[in-house]
């Protein structure tokens, strides 16, 4: 069985962005593998460019990746002001690795990260995983409306 590695990237994931680093700080074409993970497993993340992923990572406060051997199988990130509000984004587990506890591992590491753990209100959007996120005390809110401005 291949080793499982969870990486709590530094703010902005410099190693992943510039050098494609994966487990044990080894070059693995990690950024391209992340692009493929998102493209293959999340309809809302299809066709993200490498340059856009670099910007996305550069501006993220907390970034977690999960690897089996040298293949990325899970990912999640968060933005926060560190006290009042935060948002979890892009939580993805490769469809061939779902049901193994990897999503739980990503969420627990995001929620326990230094920048997120004391944030008073965390937001999360999901299309079809409401039950999964409810185990982490996320609740559906009907008192607010989601508004979107798209460019």
UniProtKB/TrEMBL annotation:
Annotated organism of origin: Prochlorococcus marinus str. MIT 9302
Single GO molecular function: acyltransferase activity, transferring groups other than amino-acyl groups
Pfam family, any one: Acetyltransf_7
InterPro entries assigned to the protein according to its UniProt record, in alphabetical order: Acetyltransferase_Butenolide, Acyl_CoA_acyltransferase, GNAT_dom
Keyword Lipid biosynthesis: no
UniProtKB keywords: Transferase
Source organism superkingdom: Bacteria
Residue ranges constituting the N-acetyltransferase domain according to the UniProt record: 23-151
Protein known as: Putative acetyltransferase
Coiled-coil annotated spans: none
SUPFAM superfamilies reported for this sequence: Acyl-CoA N-acyltransferases (Nat)
Database matches in PROSITE patterns: GNAT (PS51186)
């Amino acid at each position: 069985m291949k080793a499982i590695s969870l990486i709590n990237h530094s703010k902005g994931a410099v190693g992943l962005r510039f050098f494609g680093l994966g487990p044990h700080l080894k070059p693995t074409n990690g950024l391209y593998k992340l692009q493929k993970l998102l493209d293959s497993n999340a309809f809302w993340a299809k066709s993200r460019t490498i340059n856009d992923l670099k910007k996305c990572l550069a501006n993220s406060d907390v970034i977690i990746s999960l690897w089996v051997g040298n293949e990325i199988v899970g990912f999640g990130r968060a933005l926060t002001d560190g006290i009042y509000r935060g948002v979890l984004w892009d939580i993805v587990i490769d469809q061939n690795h779902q049901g193994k506890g990897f999503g739980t591992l990503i969420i627990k590491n995001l929620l326990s990260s230094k920048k997120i753990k004391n944030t008073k209100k965390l937001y999360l959007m999901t299309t079809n995983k409401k039950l999964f996120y409810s185990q982490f005390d996320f609740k559906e809110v009907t008192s607010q409306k989601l508004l979107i401005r798209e460019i």
